[in-house]
Amino acid sequence: MDMVLIVELIAASAIGAILYTIIGIAPGTDETAVLAPVTLVLVLSGFEPIVILAFFISAIVAKKLTDSIPVAIAGIPGGVMSAPMVEHAMVLKKHGIPELSIRKMASGSVIGTMIAVPMSLLLANLIAPLSDYITEYASQIFLGGAIFLALMTKNRWIALLSILPFAFIIQGLRIFYWEVGIVPEDKTVFTSFFLGITIGPVILKLAELLNPKSRRKMPRYGKKEIAMRKTRKTKGFPNPFKILDKKEIGTTSLSSFLGVLTFFMSPVGMTIFLGETLTSRIKDPVKKATRAISSMDGLTNAAYISGTLIPLIAIGLPLSPTAIGPGGPLFNAPPVFTEEHNMHHMLTMPDFILATVIGSVVAISITFYITIKYAQQICAFVFRFIPHEAMLGLFFGLVIMLAFMDAGIVNIAGVLLVALVAGFLHRKGVNYGVQFMTLYAAPWLVSLFM
Amino acid sequence: MTKMDDRHQQGENIEVWEDLVNIKDLLLSIVICTISTLGGYLIAPNEPPKPLIFGLVGAVVGFIITSVVIKPKRRFRYMDEEED
Q1: Looking at the partner chain, which of A93, A383, A390 has a beta carbon nearest the beta carbon of B66?
Q2: What ipTM goes with this model?
């Protein structure tokens, strides 16, 4: 094996891990919004596919390790994926043990990664022969996922009712773009709609600010009081298997395993569903919370890694929410990657294994160490110096740019429309999972009526 | 530990996405970040991937400017050991 290549892979992984350790902590950073653009730039800049894969895997692992830190310390989700954990982390915070949350979550992440990497490689090999069949029925699978997730939510009927109209809005905009000639017929606007859904709740809130009546009705606050207890320094290199007890390791392994098997489902939806199901019988609130957060964190990690690797290795089409969102540029980034010629076609199995193993090992060794040791200092810095306004502004700016990039100025209005509807549905209890699945199923679903 | 204190007090801030913001500051931040990001994208030479890179750099620049100009709406302190 080429030594130069190995060094390159380690360097790319280290950069990915450090960069996304910082980004992960920032509250409200959506995985797609922070991973997809950077990955896209790397792909288009002509880096070797194997180096990009190592970077990407390392970035995912690091981001997933750190985005639970603000949840534990302040109850602010570091990303969309960590939102389901807020409730449980708040229980631990109320009991005055937020640093325990961090340790449990980070250890859950490590276990999730350790289970997901070999299992994804294995599952990808099993699925590869079925790839033609799966590709053929992808849309049906996505619709099934949307219906399933809709039935799992509390407001199941409105969630179920929202699927078809929402699909019409999305596909209606696309057809309009094609008809008017804003985008060529073979291009499907996707990334910006995806981001529109993600930022929906915020856009709706901003839109309400324009209405003086509802603006006056909004509750006003002073400053947010954040007090942190100084924690003792842990010595030596932390061991995830000592931080979690046997039952937690068991539940985390099980949920990670299921997370890999359901790689094609929305990770947020599965996290909510499995995390709650697996812990619903535990009575002691603290035990319930630690079990829930460690297994949820394991699951999100596993779902992200498997969601990227399995479609990439086995199918070559982005057939999972992770692959189509954050991992999108690995499948489709013209002119470098196209659906007929991307990493799936360019890398061999040993390449995939090498990049994945190096990426995840480097990320765990750097980020897990930093997370456990310096979580508090990093959080203190972010809370003191990074205003929430800057975070929202950054996100808004990126969404506008990507909207413009996808289909010009008209698409900015299109994305705002999608965001407003998505934000409204979100408020009525239709979660991201249902909306994302609908986004993927939309072209086929609408074609049934035409 | 995190308290929405001053709920009754005369506050200026509203809650968006799990944290507090000032409406005027938020508008300012959105304007700055949008101009810097989209501006970066538009002034870049029209050969991919340059517009995207310029846009991302613009986003980071906008983020840094707003972080300097706007103060976070949080009051942060370390707790003493005895305190709960």
Answers
A1: A390
A2: 0.85
